[in-house]
Amino acid sequence: MAKRIAAVLVLLFLAHLCKGIGDDLQFHYSDTVFANFDNRRFWDPDISWENKYAADAEGELIRPLRERFPGSSTVFVATTDAWHLLQAIQYALIRLAIVVLVFSRLPRPRWGYALGLYVVVWAVQGAGFWLGYYGL
Prior knowledge:
Blueprint: H1 2-28, H2 40-43, H3 45-48, H4 82-102, H5 110-135
Helix pairs in contact: 1-4, 4-5
């Protein structure tokens, strides 16, 4: 039990490390180490959000906004910029922490149920986001 709790604490630490880095990017980008990286379009949230959307030959967003590639603003949004990638990692780590916490109580075959639980938690998180973002 102690190893499982330690693993959960490490996963939660890493999840919230991602949250902290994402917030630092969002609110203090120019003061972060990431401002020194070459790929500003990926790291700077002031412009990186545009990576989700199609642009014309001059790089201007096409209005009304449309996805750059299928799923770029939904299921594959984590591939478009650092903020979304960090957020995706954060939530994946939280899901994994939940699975680790209950793993020994799952029926056999545990790995199958663990994967199923991970997917169910992912679906619940996604449904909550969609309701909050698109439904209210």
